[in-house]
Design a protein that fits this description.
It contains 16 helices and 21 strands. With 441 residues, it is α+β, with helices and mostly antiparallel strands. The protein folds into two domains: 269 residues, no CATH class; 133 residues, Conserved hypothetical protein from pyrococcus furiosus pfu- 392566-001, domain 2. The strands form five sheets. Strands 1, 4, 5, 6, 8, 9, 10, 11 and 12 form a nine-stranded mixed sheet that branches. A hairpin with a 3-residue loop joins strand 16 and strand 17. It is globular and about 65 Å long. It starts with a strand and ends in a 7-residue tail after the last strand. 40% of the residues are buried.
Length: 441
């Protein structure tokens, strides 16, 4: 069962920090050195100092990026730049955005404390593999600060959208308690409402209680880190009550049936690869695919849009556009018989197993290390790299369907790296959860 609870969130004090848009950020894993510097320059209290702080050559075990985050957090709290809400709440979180075709959507979520459970119980399911390095980094930060600064984005089953209906009624005609436009995705309108009505909190908690099969959309490393932190805290505090905050994690929950739930494609750019020319790659691909030249990008995109679960299609660009249609899906059954049928039918699985590995000879280890390969949401950027001679070619992908994510997660299958790009990202800095030893939910 999915046990959620209201919590006393910690939020920025707008009367002290000013414009809240200047203190929020993208999730830590999207913050490279350039964006980190922009956030540092944007505001002295930007949350980047807590989630992805600067490292220095003279850092020591006593003074480092994690201890600085701890000290920043505590000093900001003490000085009133961060405030703890007076009563437990659930937080309604709406993101309104525009798709490339001009469609305007709103994705509705709510933020809660979720009682941690092991994946084996079936209440929470992953859909991607995790890497050791990020989990070590996040655990070091959590040990130092005892605070969940960022959201774990989860999907929950609710075909009748009963929970969204409860929240829609609760916030009707109310202005949001926070409204921001984050620096990196300025076109996304981010709104949050604080809901404290006991009847609404009880009703939502009851609706969530019997649910199973919640899927982690983004934040796999953070969820596994929370499990590791809980285990450490249970060893240190064996007599802690069930409502000790370290038994919980900060999550943002979206219905799998929400009309605003959007997955964008992640395109694969091939660079610094010399083993085969683009023409040789296409010749090799003909063993598995029908390869058809296309008149241009618009024609290719129209053809890709006609794909079905039994007609898998991938685009290719090397200065010219080509459509690759899988001849016989059964070839995946022969090549990867140990994987579930749902996994074998994924476009990303087909691309990586048949073309990237077998035709091009790029190993799984090289893919994991991003050798010869990079990932792009923005297809224009990847195409520009090919046109400028900075890349060899681009594989142009359709988005993974939410039904495919459900099917793989239910079967316990981890999808290939960068299979999903849930858009937009849930920003960091709207609300935080204290999970130190003395805290209670």
């Amino acid at each position: 069962m999915a046990t959620i609870a209201p919590f006393t969130g910690i939020r920025y004090n707008p009367y002290k920090v000013g414009d809240l848009s200047k203190v929020v950020s993208q999730p830590y894993d999207r913050i490279g050195p350039d964006l980190q510097k922009k956030y540092y320059d944007l505001h002295q209290y930007n949350i980047v100092r807590l989630i992805r702080g600067q490292e220095f050559d003279d850092d020591t075990p006593e003074q480092n990026v994690y201890t600085r985050a701890r000290d920043f957090f505590q000093s900001w709290l003490d000085a009133g730049y961060l405030l703890r809400d007076p009563t437990p709440a659930l937080y309604v979180y709406h993101q309104t955005f525009t798709l490339p075709d001009g469609t305007r959507l709103t994705r509705k979520a709510f933020i809660a404390a979720l009682q941690l459970v092991e994946f084996s119980e079936g209440t929470v399911l992953p859909h991607e593999r995790t890497l050791a390095g990020p989990k070590v980094d996040r655990l070091n930060l959590l040990r130092a600060t005892g605070v969940n600064f960022e959201l774990i984005f989860m999907l929950y089953p609710d075909p009748e959208n009963r929970i969204n209906a409860l929240f829609d009624a609760a916030i009707a005609d109310r202005p949001p308690d926070a409204e921001v436009q984050e620096l990196f995705e300025k076109d996304v309108r981010q709104q949050m409402w604080v809901v404290t009505d006991p009847q609404v909190l009880a009703a939502v908690t009851a609706e969530m209680a019997p649910k199973r099969g919640l899927i982690i959309a983004d934040g796999h490393h953070r969820y596994e880190t929370a499990l590791n932190y809980r285990a450490e805290m249970q060893d240190r505090y064996p007599d802690a009550p069930a409502n000790a905050a370290f038994h919980y994690a900060l999550v943002s929950l979206v219905s799998m049936d929400d009309p605003g739930l959007t997955i964008l494609p992640t395109h694969r750019e091939i660079h610094d690869y010399t083993a085969k020319t683009p023409a040789e790659i296409l010749d090799g691909a003909r063993a598995y695919f029908e390869v058809t030249p296309m008149a241009g990008r618009a024609a290719l995109e129209a053809a890709l849009a006609q794909a079905t679960p039994d007609d898998r299609r991938i685009g290719f660009y090397d200065g010219s556009y080509f459509l690759l249609r899988l001849r016989n899906p059964a070839v995946m059954d022969q090549i990867v018989p140990d994987r579930a049928p749902e996994w074998r039918r994924l476009d990303v699985s087909i691309l990586h197993e048949l073309i990237i590995e077998r035709v091009m000879g790029i190993s799984k280890e090289q893919v994991e290390n991003k050798q010869f390969l990079d990932y792009y949401r923005d297809l224009n950027q990847a195409i520009a790299h090919v046109d400028a001679g900075q890349a060899v070619c681009v594989f142009i992908m359709n988005p993974t369907r939410i039904g495919e994510v459900k099917a793989c997660s239910t079967r316990g299958e981890k999808m290939p790296q960068k299979s999903t790009d849930f858009y937009p990202k849930m920003i960091s800095g709207l609300v935080m959860l204290d999970v130190r030893a003395s805290e209670r939910i």
